[in-house]
């Protein structure tokens, strides 16, 4: 308890301050300056110097996708495969992050694809690899001719996400699994299948944030869990989102799988759709197209090749698929062209197709040309544009 002498001193100090308003103002200024100094120190020496290997305070972490702010730029590269066979290889890049979806079509495609991928993946690390299903035309270049020249041998992989089921017992599918497992055991890659991602088990996630405002998510379809007689229906389905724009990849998913995809997910309108199964008549069905209503469609195939059929209308991209897609867009692009319907004599149609977007500006360009399919000479000689198609 304060003594009478102490109380008297406090009272006298208070009376002194009351008589000196300038002293009060000076004290307030000092307090404000101290507060400003503390704030500046925290911002520049603590906030701005958050550790690079921890959750960033300036942008999204893997566990916390960005909900606003400036969008990252995104480029999507549909790559030609170095031969006249149908197959997929798509490289998606934003900042220093690369996502590779599939690497077909034949083992010798590795000689073409590895140098192309190195143009974009300059640090030798593919952050994410997504392998849709176990058919040769989607996996062969991961292995290459002898393993040493394949994608897995030339790049380290961060996370590999692939098919949950397979029927095929082909050697290339076994080789793929062996080299994938080696990538995990020797090079430290993490491996999940699509169902683990959907169920978020064993450390897997449905969604992965890869840049400011950009993420991809593994969608669900029933053949992750159920048996199908068609290997294509095991395809992993992926939706990329950049702000309010969406880009859909469904591998070679067929009609029944597409129906399950629609039923199981709240699919958005899609700016871009990679045509299902190389433009096959059994994929890119109305049930899916009517929901996503794509504005741009890229087809990875060798147009007109008789690799799978000699019926002209059924060669990729098929007349039936074009008829269905045409109701929603005329912006259809194709990578490669067969010169004599074989797989040995081919050239670029659009070539490597590059899509670029910053969330506002959206462009599609081909390394050979940027002519839409309906305006090509091949189309005029082999296909017809439907009367109800977008003109």
Describe the structure.
With 391 residues, this protein is α/β, with parallel strands linked by helices. The protein has two domains: 4-47; 74-382, Ribonuclease Z/Hydroxyacylglutathione hydrolase-like (Metallo-beta-lactamase, Chain A, 4-Layer Sandwich), CATH 3.60.15. It is built from eleven helices and 16 strands. It has helices at 4-18, 21-47, 110-120, 136-143, 151-154, 171-187, 194-199, 255-264, 286-292, 319-326, 377-382, and strands spanning 74-78, 90-94, 97-101, 125-131, 156-162, 190-193, 207-211, 214-218, 238-242, 245-249, 272-274, 296-303, 332-338, 346-348, 353-357, 362-366. Strands 6-5-4-3-2-1-15-16 form an eight-stranded mixed sheet. Strand 13 and strand 14 (346-348) form a beta hairpin. Helix 3 (110-120) crosses helix 4 (136-143) and helix 4 (136-143) packs across helix 6. Mean pLDDT is 89; it is low at 42-68.
Task: Briefly summarize what is shown.
The chain has 391 residues and is α/β, with parallel strands linked by helices. Helix content is 30%, strand content 21%.
């Amino acid at each position: 308890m304060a003594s009478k002498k102490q109380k008297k001193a406090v009272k006298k100090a208070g009376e002194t301050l009351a008589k000196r308003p300038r002293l009060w103002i000076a004290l307030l200024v000092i307090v404000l300056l101290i507060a400003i100094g503390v704030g500046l120190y925290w911002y520049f020496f603590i906030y701005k110097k958050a550790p690079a290997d921890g959750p960033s305070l300036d942008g999204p972490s893997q566990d916390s996708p960005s909900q606003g702010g400036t969008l990252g730029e995104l480029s999507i590269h549909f790559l030609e495969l170095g031969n006249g066979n149908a197959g997929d290889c798509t490289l998606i890049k934003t900042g220093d992050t690369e996502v590779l979806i599939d690497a077909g079509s034949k083992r010798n495609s590795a000689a073409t694809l590895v140098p192309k991928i190195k143009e974009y993946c300059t640090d030798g690390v593919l952050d994410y690899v997504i392998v849709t299903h176990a058919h040769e035309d989607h996996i062969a270049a991961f292995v290459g001719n002898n393993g040493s020249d394949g994608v897995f041998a030339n790049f380290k992989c961060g996370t590999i996400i692939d098919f949950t089921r397979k029927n095929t017992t082909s050697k290339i599918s076994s080789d793929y699994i062996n080299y994938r497992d080696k990538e995990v055991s020797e090079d430290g890659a993490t491996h999940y299948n699509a169902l683990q991602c959907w169920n978020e088990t064993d450390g897997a996630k449905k969604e992965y944030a890869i840049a400011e405002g950009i993420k991809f998510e593994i969608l669900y379809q029933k053949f992750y869990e159920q048996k199908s007689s068609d290997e294509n229906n095991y395809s992993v389905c992926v939706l990329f989102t950049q702000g309010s724009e969406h880009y859909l990849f469904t591998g070679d998913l067929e009609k029944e799988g597409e129906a399950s995809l629609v039923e199981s997910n709240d699919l958005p309108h899609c700016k871009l759709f990679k045509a299902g199964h190389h433009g096959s008549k059994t994929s890119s069905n109305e049930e899916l197209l009517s929901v996503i209503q794509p504005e741009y469609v890229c087809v990875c195939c060798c147009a007109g090749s008789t690799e799978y059929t000699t019926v002209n209308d059924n060669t990729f991209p098929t007349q039936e698929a074009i008829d269905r897609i045409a109701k929603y867009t005329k912006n259809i692009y194709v990578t490669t062209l067969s010169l004599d319907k074989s797989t040995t004599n081919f050239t670029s149609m659009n070539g490597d197709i590059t899509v670029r977007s910053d969330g506002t500006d959206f462009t599609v360009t081909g390394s050979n040309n940027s002519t839409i399919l309906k305006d090509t000479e091949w189309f005029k000689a082999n296909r017809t544009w439907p009367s109800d198609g977008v003109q």
